[in-house]
Amino acid sequence: MAQMYVNGQWADALSGEAHEVNNPANGSLVDTAPMAGKEDVQAAVRAAHLAFPAWADTSPDDRAALLRKGIQAVEANAKEITALLTAEQGKPLFEASGELHHFLHGMEFYAGLSSKIRGSQVPLPPALGKHAYGLVVKRPLGVCVGIVPWNFPLTLMGTKVGPALIAGNPIIIKPARTTPLATLKIIGLLNEAGLPPGVLQCLTGSGSSVGESLICDPAVRRVALTGSSETGRRVMQLAGPDFKRITLELGGSDPMIVCPDADVKKAVSGAVVGRYWNAGQQCLAVKRLYLFEEVYDEFMDGLMQKVGNYRVGEGSTKPEKPFIRMGPLHTAAQREEIESQLADAVEKGANVLIGGKRPEDSELAQGHYFEPAIVVDIPEDSKLVTEEVFGPVLPVWKVGSLDEAIQKANNSPWGLGSSIWTQNMAWANRAIREIEAGVTWVNQIHYGYDELPFGGTKASGIGHEHGPEAVEYYLEHKGAVFGGLDRE
Ligand code: NAD
Predict the structure, then answer these.
(1) Predicted confidence band at 195 (pLDDT cuts at 50, 70, 90)?
(2) pLDDT at 486
(3) 435: which DSSP letter?
(4) How many Å lie between the centroid of ligand 1 and the Cα of residue 12?
């Protein structure tokens, strides 16, 4: 049985309760994990609170050195970690390995930033004191909590752990109930590299119980959630009364616009990776595709061919070339949701060009598999437009102008990512200015760089992760004034 990491030690839940973690590819038991309760939350928050002053006083170089030692230990255990991630999450090994690499790159980025956090000096008007000046001093906040979803358990843990630790805060990670195992392995390795007890902890269990208890604990000052917009609303409600700092990285329904002058081949690859990577279970995913009439036929030919090359299957083996392996959806509920969204569109007149059903292969019957789909003729009021589609279904529309494309792109409650594929820089600039989204990629797949701040607008959330900007959300900006310097 896997254990949690509390106050520098592996631990069971104090209640002794545990839950199963099952493999989405075949339903088999991967391991069990503790079901933390209120008393575990209290113990972890107390340990973090006690660890805070000394960690805040640790020099930036020492913090970075500890992180780097941990990063090396994680790298040395990459094989075991990626196998665990594939078993608990369902993504194929090459995708699990890509995720771990992204996690390590992000952690290295923050280790490098540790000694580069800057405040500022501000000249002040002389009315209240000649030569007075102000300082903006940056101070860590205190106990932080990072709540992580199941689609990218490692990278989205790293986007919280890295900035929290280099800013001088302790952090408690709460992974999704269904994906705690690779996370626990990494948290253990980072701790064994020498982090003081209480600085980095991990509690496992359900969001409504352990997640809510963490948010409501009075000693917790900062909550970072990556999850659905619905969970974001709940986190805001809970954190609001005590004015806790929050960042919310929530759902999305990214539009992709392909213009008449686009490099169609590149754009097709962008759409395929953007929609079907991680079996379509990505926040940043191409969830609505708008093709100009002029490129529609050529694009659709290329798209159909590529999607036809996908084979669904268990992710721990290598796919036979030239096929691309896609793993199962993460849970049965996830598959049912996609099926119901697709059925709603078909009922309203949409046509499925390829895929969109469970595979017939009886060997796959125990997994949550779903064949990647392309859908056309979708009415704007169908769930494929009004809801987030978190699976391998790509809805495609024809558009006649940039005005129409941007208007359709903005017809969504979300505003996470977006892309435009064109050589026309004036059009690209218009898309950047007018599309309501946290990021617009131009001729580039939807990808979250560690170097660049990333966050959504509208129902996609509040605040940023990634980049140096993320660190600021873990720091308090305090003003200080030096006055009275006019007397000798
Ligand atoms: P979810 O909101 O159900 O769960 C996310 C995390 O929140 C889990 O750890 C869960 O246990 C916890 N949680 C759930 N209810 C809670 C509560 N009441 N209080 C505290 N914690 C609670 O989301 P999910 O299904 O795991 O993940 C998919 C969603 O995440 C999608 O909407 C996706 O778009 C979004 N997502 C967003 C980003 C981004 O960067 N914007 C990245 C990845 C995923």
Answers:
(1) very high
(2) 60
(3) S
(4) 24
Write the residue with the smallest CA distance to atom 35 of ligand 1.
227
Where are the strands (E) in 106-161, listed by range? Answer: 120-123, 133-140, 143-147
User: What is the DSSP pairing of strand 457-458 with strand 414-415?
Assistant: antiparallel
Does the active-site annotation cover 283? yes
The per-residue pLDDT for 485 is 60
Q: Which atom of ligand 1 is nearest to the CA of 174?
A: 9
Residues in the chain: 488
Q: When comparing pLDDT for 388 and 322, which is higher?
A: 388
Q: Is the peptide bond before 322 cis (omega within 30 degrees of 0)?
A: yes
Ligand 1, CB cutoff 6 Å, lining residues: 147-152, 156, 174, 176-177, 206-208, 211-212, 215, 226-228, 231, 234-235, 249-252, 283, 388, 390, 416, 456, 461
Active site residue 216: no
Beta-carbon contacts of residue 403 (< 8 Å; ≥ 6 apart): none
Residue 319: predicted pLDDT: 67
% of the chain at pLDDT higher than 90: 94
pLDDT, position 322? 67
**Structural contact between residues 288 and 385, judged by C-beta atoms closer than 8 angstroms:** yes
Structure tokens at 27: 């339903």
Q: Contact at 8 Å (CB) between 155 and 99?
A: yes
How does pLDDT run across 424-454, given as a tens digit for each residue? 999 999 999 999 999 999 999 999 999 999 9
Measured CA to CA, the distance from residue 65 to residue 48 in angstroms comes to 20
From 202, 283, 314, 371, active-site residue: 283
Given a cut of 90, whether residue 3 has pLDDT beyond it is: yes
Q: Among 19, 89, 147, say which to mutate for ligand 1: greatest number of ligand atoms within 8 Å of CB.
A: 147
Residue 26 alpha carbon to ligand 1 centre in Å: 24
Query: Does position 66 have pLDDT exceeding 80, yes or no?
Result: yes
List 88, 108, 249, 436, catalytic entry: 249
Q: Could you tell me which residues are beta bridge partners of residue 254? A: 286
pLDDT value at position 488?
53
Q: What is the mean pLDDT of the chain?
A: 96
What spacing in Å lies between the alpha carbon of 147 and ligand 1's midpoint?
A: 8
Q: Indicate the top mutation candidate among 155, 156, 220, 231 to test ligand 1's pocket, ranked by most ligand atoms within 8 A of CB.
A: 231
Residue appearing with tokens 């949690």: 4
Q: Once rounded to an integer, what is the mean pLDDT over residues 242-267?
A: 98
Alpha-helical segments (H) within 348-486: 383-386, 402-409, 425-434, 467-472
| pLDDT at site 432 | 98
Task: Work out the end-to-end distance of the chain between its first and last CA atoms, rounded to an integer number of angstroms.
Answer: 69
How many other C-beta atoms can be found within 10 angstroms of the C-beta atom of residue 318?
Answer: 10
